[in-house]
Description:
Distance between the termini: 16 Å
Order of helices and strands: HEHEHE
Number of domains: 1
Largest sheet: 3 strands, parallel
Structural class: alpha/beta
Number of strands: 3
Shape: globular
Radius of gyration: 13 Å
Strand content: 5-15%
Amino acid sequence: MNISDSERIAASLESCGFVPASRIENADLVIFNTCGVRQSAENRAYTLIHNLKRQAANDKKQIKIVLTGCLANRKDVQRRLKDLVDLFFAIDDF
C-alpha cells in the first residue's frame, strides 16, 4: 500500500472533520488503499474486506468501505467485490 497516498487521503478527510477510529472495528468509513502487484497483497485485501463486512453485519452496524489504489481500477475486482465495497476510485481521482 502506498503510504504517502494514504496519508494524503487521511489528511484530507481530517480537514473535513473526520476523526480516525482507534480500531478498524469502530470505524464508520474504511478506505483500503490497495496494491495488486503481488497476489498476497490482493488476497489480504479481499480477506480484510470480507471479514470487516461480516463483523459489521453480525454487530448490526453500518459501515462504508471504499477501495482505491491499483486494485480499484480492475473490472474483475469490482465485479468480485461489488456487494461489499461502497465506492471504487482511482487514487489520482482523490
